[in-house]
Amino acid sequence: MDEDYMSERILVTGGAGYIGSNIAAALVKRPGTDVLVVDDFSSGDWRNLIHVDCEVRAADCDDPALLEEIADGAFSAIFHEAAITDTTIMDQRLMIEVNTNAFADMLEACHVSGTRMIYASSAGTYGNSPAPNMVGSGEAPENIYGFSKLAMDRLASRRYETHAAPIIGLRYFNVYGPGETHKNEKTGNKTASMILQLYEQVKAGNQPRLFKYGEQMRDFVYIRDVVAANLAALDAPRSGVCNVGSGLARSFNDIIQILSKELETDFEIEYFDNPFTFYQNHTEADLSLTADLLNWQPEWTLEKGMRDYIKLLEKGYRGPAEAA
Question: Which candidate among 49, 155, 224, 305 keeps its CA 20 to 30 Å from the CA of 180?
Fold first, then answer.
């Protein structure tokens, strides 16, 4: 698209990653929108951007030159998705430096220019608090990752009253869908969704494995819904943090049942002990505040989302949903 016709420029940090690349793929379809993707490529993957026509820059999200651009008002909005997302990493200083400190620097630059900031928070902020999970209640993370995200939310809240444009934090629940395949390749099958992990186990001819006894409950939200929530945040009238989920908890055994139906195969599950003391046993997003802030609600059930996802996987497609 000719730059003369561009009406706005939007920055996506972590744009080669899972959610970031899906957001970038959707943004480039918006008329008059120029997208800059910034990624350090430590966990993101260039293959996610093959079919996304945008500018790509290899850099940290708190790179001084980038912060100067933000402060100078180069962007109409920022989608900040860059972070360490591996919840098994226990290096506290590293997690805070990469997730919280970098966000603080970006937020300061946004404050100078009055730029809208939309950033990725997490359901990890709730730890094992009783579901349904509601913003402002039960915010007791069980690991340093969840704490780093809660610290980001607290930083943002200090700017709500003085920032010229809205600052919106989206607490993602268990996101699944196209664009996450590279996460398995780079982390040894640790950070991709259980839906992809179980699919790949089965396709490799292996027995699907679950923590005993597959009854843990999760709010699984399809990537197409997550992207829609992010785009809705471009029009949010005020600052705030809200949940992005399906609003309904489902078990890992449910995933196996749907997978079996879609692949027309019966599976015998191998159950094994859960080694993680901080594991969340039940997450479920309360979406009342979300509907009010974003004027958005999810459209994809687990059955519908998995069916769409599996069809793309069966075709060998591995990129963002919007680029398929």
Answer: 155
Give whole-number Cα distances, 180 to 132, 185, 191, 197, 202, in Å: 26, 10, 9, 10, 17
The two three-digit tokens of residue 272, written as one number: 């094994």
How far the first Cα of the chain sits from its last, in Å, is: 20
Q: Residue 2: pLDDT band by 50, 70, 90 thresholds?
A: very low
What are the Cα distances from residue 228, in Å, to 27, 235, 281?
11, 12, 27
Instruction: Compute the residue count for the chain.
Output: 324
Residues with a known catalytic role: 145, 183
> Any idea where the domains of the chain sit in the sequence?
3-175+222-245+283-299
pTM score of the predicted model: 0.94
Domain 3-175+222-245+283-299, CATH homologous superfamily name and number: NAD(P)-binding Rossmann-like Domain (3.40.50.720)
CA dihedral sign, ordered 243, 133, 284, 270: positive
Does 86 have pLDDT greater than 90?
A: no
Find where tokens 């379809």 sit.
29
User: How confident is the model over 199-221, as a mean pLDDT?
Assistant: 91
Q: Secondary structure of the chain in the HEC alphabet?
A: CCHHHCCEEEEEECCCCHHHHHHHHHHCCCCCEEEEEEECCCCCCHHHHCCCCCEEEECCCCCHHHHHHHHCCCCCEEEECCCCCCCCCCCHHHHHHHHHHHHHHHHHHHHHHCCEEEEEEEHHHHCCCCCCECCCCCCCCCCHHHHHHHHHHHHHHCCCCCCCCCEEEEEECEEECCCCHHHHHHHCCCCCCHHHHHHHHHHCCCCCEEECCCCCEECEEEHHHHHHHHHHHCCCCCCEEEEECCCCCEEHHHHHHHHHHHHCCCCCCEEECCCCCCCCCECCECCHHHHHHHCCCCCCCHHHHHHHHHHHHHCCCCCCHHHC
Nearest to 309 by CA among 257, 259, 249, 254: 259
